[in-house]
Amino acid sequence: MWKWTRRDENKSAPPIPSTVSPARSTPSRESVQTVPRLQSVESLGSDVSHIGKSIVIKGDVSGSGNVYLDGELEGRFELLDGVLTIGPEGRIRANLQARSIVVHGRVDGNLYGLEHAELKKSATVVGDIYTPRIAIEDGAFLEGNALVHPNTPRPQAKKEHATFSERVRAA
Questions:
Q1: Fewest CB atoms within 10 A around its CB: which of 91, 95, 127, 148?
Q2: DSSP readout, 116-153?
């Protein structure tokens, strides 16, 4: 162990020989495994509307573009030309309609993914899912039905309380 003393203060450090080359690291030959992560807002693109966890919305929301929702929503949500991502802190009590829907949090309502719906392992959905394509990670919770068909029904404002079988027959 080296201990600094006043005597060392007047000594100069020994010169480093020029024949010594710096140490080089060699890349590991082990395989690299990717760790799945939550979808970040940045991965959605530059035009993302972020609704933070301290925001509470009661009513109908509609628009276009991509939305990352980590707050609370009660009502109806329509995003026909964008990706809707429900963050892990998101708590939704609404029917959701979007081009693509990704759920990390909790949704009490129906999901209408016009192109795609995805439930991550932390997702809890209590309601029905209508979409042409679906992905459900191991650990996700779904209490309801999933209709995966190219001609999925769209939500009807007047028939909000229709049963699942009535909606399937109507489609």
A1: 148
A2: EEEE-TT-EEES-EEESSEEE-TT-EEES-EEE-TTPP
